[in-house]
Amino acid sequence: MNSDVPKDTGAGAETATATTPFDWIGGEDRVHALTERFYDLMDLEPGYAELRAAHGSDLVQARQKLFWFLCGWLGGPDHYQSRFGHPRLRMRHMPFSIGIQERDQWVACMDQAMGETGVPDALRARLKESFMGTADWMRNKGTP
Prior knowledge:
By secondary structure, the chain is mostly helical. It contains eight helices and no strands.
């Protein structure tokens, strides 16, 4: 599991049997639902227009790759790494212009998707913090 992913502390009833964020979120089906909602929101919400524009016309590959990545990042099966090797997130995103606006839209869209797919509030808050740190690190335009 990625060291940046919040670890389950066992606090609260919903975490009694969860050993990883992947388990806590509900496994592959729930990660898939989260990923699908994230990209659906990107298509639907005008507030994510710049983020959507950065993804090109077809989201099929992006949906699949994010799902594979999130499974492993959350402590589940390492689908992404088994197919593509180390994620090298920053390197793979260098061709895209990522500034504060794109970062903030990505995190807001993911947070909305987490809320709408029922990610437990405590996990949602911890994941949002981790997503913001990673998204900020991915910025390649504007003030560092």
